[in-house]
Design a protein that fits this description.
- This protein is elongated.
- The strands form 2 sheets. A 9-stranded antiparallel sheet has the order 1-2-3-4-5-6-7-10-11, with no helix packed on it.
- The protein starts with a helix and ends with a strand.
- By secondary structure, the protein is mainly β.
- It has 1 helix and 11 strands.
- β1 and β2 form a beta hairpin.
Length: 183
């Protein structure tokens, strides 16, 4: 799930990995995620993922009426290509892993749609205090979505995270702080 949280999280992956999630919420809202990542010796770790949120059967009204005129749906989709390197600057920045997501994002509401591209940049630092890892990521660097005539910015997000491993990595305590720069 590193593509979702911080692409630098792929850097220390040793084996191929597949992850998937499907959640069916109330009011006909569903969420899905499918990701695949694979390390290539000497080249880094590559990944691809797709995620979506879909809402079906939204009531459509053109006036204040008891019954809807019709129904419509809305959905968001993100296709991400990820890349991460373990300690690319080992001589100058030991313990720092870097990651990148290139994302294609689409949205559809009723019969209107928009698409854009965005980039996420992430880093993890394995501190000299071995069980402590610190991460930072900037998500959704891009021009935003344009429905009809107006451009809507993506939620530019800065995250700081930390994880501490206890009991031979049996227990991990983590925290994540989000700061939406543009919301």
């Amino acid at each position: 799930y590193a593509a979702y949280w911080n692409p630098a999280g792929f850097a220390r992956l040793k084996d191929k990995d597949i992850s998937t999630t499907f959640i069916k919420y109330f009011e006909d809202v569903s969420y899905g995620y499918l990701g695949y990542s694979y390390p290539q010796a000497g080249l880094g770790v590559f990944g691809v993922s797709i995620s979506y949120v879909a809402i079906r059967q939204i009531e459509k009204r053109t006036a204040d009426t008891e019954f809807p005129d019709s129904k419509f749906s809305a959905n968001d989709m993100c296709l991400a290509f990820s890349y991460a390197l373990k300690e690319p600057f080992e001589d100058t920045l030991p313990g720092v892993d870097l990651g990148l997501n290139l994302k294609a994002i689409s949205q559809k509401i009723d019969d209107e749609s928009a698409a854009t591209a965005a980039v996420d940049l992430g880093a993890f630092y394995q501190t000299v205090l071995e069980p402590l890892t610190i991460g930072v990521v900037v998500q959704n660097i891009g021009p935003g979505q344009k429905f009809l005539e107006e451009r809507d910015p993506l939620p530019l997000n800065l995250k700081l995270s930390g994880a501490y491993r206890f009991l031979d990595e049996t227990l991990i305590v983590g925290m994540d702080v989000d700061e939406y720069i543009i919301d």
